[in-house]
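Researcher: Let's do a round of design. I'm pasting the structure tokens now; please hold your answer until I've finished.
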């Protein structure tokens, strides 16, 4: 995400793409960005916890994929609600990757 700061250094505008107004990059899971997106109602600790949750969701997705690839579990072993969520996340990830909104640098750097 790209941001614009006000005179005091606070985020005042966010864009998915770099623009003349929004030229500073912040990761989507940045506690500062999450706090701004939640109208500043989230303290730094809560924003960090939420950012951690977002990162952990990715880890869980990868674990599920590895278990299925190794034949430890089958997709149909998952409860129906879990199957729907997994399919929804996979669909969202494909769309975001297609729009190049998700950085490929995670995979290149070894970060899960």
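Researcher: That's everything. Go ahead.
Model: Designed sequence:
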């Amino acid at each position: 995400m790209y941001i614009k700061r006000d005179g005091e250094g606070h985020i005042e505008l966010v864009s998915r793409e770099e623009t003349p107004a929004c030229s500073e990059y912040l990761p989507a899971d940045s506690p500062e960005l999450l706090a701004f997106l939640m109208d500043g109602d989230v303290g730094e600790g809560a924003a960090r916890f939420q950012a951690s949750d977002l990162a952990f969701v990715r880890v869980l997705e990868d674990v599920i994929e590895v278990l299925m690839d190794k034949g430890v579990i089958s997709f149909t072993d998952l409860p129906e609600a879990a199957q729907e969520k997994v399919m929804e996340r996979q669909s969202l990830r494909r769309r975001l990757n297609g729009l190049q909104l998700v950085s490929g640098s995670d995979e290149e750097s070894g970060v899960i």
